[in-house]
Amino acid sequence: MREIKLGMSTALSGPAADLGQNMYLGVRIGLAEQNTKGGIQGKKLRLVALDDGYEPVRTVPNIHGLIDQENVLAIIGNVGTPTAIAALPIVNDAKVLFFAPFSGAGGLRKNPPDRYIVNYRASYAQETSAMVEALIEQGGVKPEEVAFFTQWDSYGDAGYVGGVAALMQHGLSSPAAITHARYERNTLAVENALADILLAEPRPKAVIIVGAYAPSARFIHLARDAGIKALFLNVSFVGSSSLARELTEEPMAIHEFAQEGEAARNALTTFEIEHDETVDYSRGVIVTQVVPHPKDLLVPVVRDYHKALAEHAPGKPESFGSLEGYIAARIFIKALESLKEEPNRDNIVDALEKLGRFDIGTGHALYLDQQEHQASHEVWPTVFVDGEFVPFDWSQISSFLPR
């Protein structure tokens, strides 16, 4: 083996392309950084990335091709829950590591864990639980005053189930007591979901959003136009920089969204969005993160990330997504470096499980073993201020809630 080849099936095109491109960038610069140090056992690391457009039907042949034709050592950094769920039976059957997917879905976090599924990030249940706890305990919001806007698939369901479980623990009588509005994946058809929120009784003080950046931004934009003053809380998958761009730029980047089929095109033109200069579309928008802030140079791994960006992708802006990809690459490399024998599809899993408690400079200890296949459980809250998402403390959440 002259090189160590890793595979990725991700969204390099379509409405979630920013997420896939950022994750790809982060993994790529992490591998490039190691290659400048001589690689692993003298072998260079190479990433083969295939585009699935955030559609599971395209993920399946990609994963088969990476495993059977490209003969990759492992799959790393795939983006999305529905695409990950489609990949699971393939990687488990082939006994190939599926490492650090950009998803917090419970299906990737079984107990006991699948041997070949190893995660970096906190789960969606942990993200939504953090939101619910802050809303109720710090913000004084009643469980019935929380609503959900989610993508109608396994991703949206994962966030919703975790959030409802947290609400039930805080006194919610039944899931039927709150509003759950949904939209179809890879569309911007959010109007029916908005109508559900508008008709909700009592009027929600907070809406937990489990969606992609383009439809989530459209929903927030239209909700503000309709007079909804609720706090909007997004899970990390939304993509903070992309959401920020969609909320602040005029015109919104909906023209960049492309779909096939007349029905899909019609769904995007139900009515036109006009930016109202008198409405602050960005106020009261929170995103939970699963990595430190990418501008916080007090965090050692963030400093390393900035250096790798400058050297291997000059001109590319920092982002939460590419930082997550970089962290994933660093963990994977740490496991590779611990191997005394030549890496193979089985011993790389053993190497990850033997890491135990370890530190790569995130500010929090990470942990992996045979029973723990999720390295991090940390959730960092950020709020949109002056065109970007900045850190804040949950104790401040009441200042963002409608009065």
Task: State the gist of this model.
With 403 residues, the chain is of the alpha/beta class. The protein has twelve helices and 14 strands.
Descriptive overview:
With 403 residues, the chain is of the alpha/beta class. Helices cover 38% and strands 16% of the residues. The strands form three sheets. It has a seven-stranded mixed beta sheet, with helices on both faces. Helix 1 packs parallel to helix 11, helix 2 runs parallel beside helix 3 and helix 4 packs parallel to helix 5.
Topology:
Elements: E1 3-10, H1 17-36, E2 44-51, H2 56-69, E3 74-76, H3 81-94, E4 97-99, E5 117-118, H4 124-138, E6 146-151, H5 154-169, E7 180-183, H6 191-198, E8 206-210, H7 213-225, E9 231-234, H8 240-248, H9 262-267, E10 285-289, H10 300-312, H11 320-337, H12 347-353, E11 356-358, E12 366-368, E13 380-385, E14 388-391
Parallel strand pairs: 1-2, 1-3, 3-4, 4-5, 6-7, 6-8, 8-9, 9-10
Antiparallel strand pairs: 10-13, 11-12, 13-14
Outline: globular
How helical, in percent, are the residues? Answer: 25-40%
- Contiguous low-pLDDT stretches (5 residues minimum) are 251-273
The rounded distance between the terminal residues' Cα atoms is 63 Å
Q: What is the N-to-C succession of helices and strands?
A: EHEHEHEEHEHEHEHEHHEHHHEEEE
Q: What is the count of helical runs?
A: 12
What's the overall average pLDDT, rounded?
91
Largest sheet: number of strands, sense, barrel closure = 7 strands, mixed
Structural class: alpha/beta
Radius of gyration: 21 Å
Side-by-side strand order of the widest sheet: 7-6-8-9-10-13-14
Number of strands: 14
Strand content of the residues, in percent? 15-25%
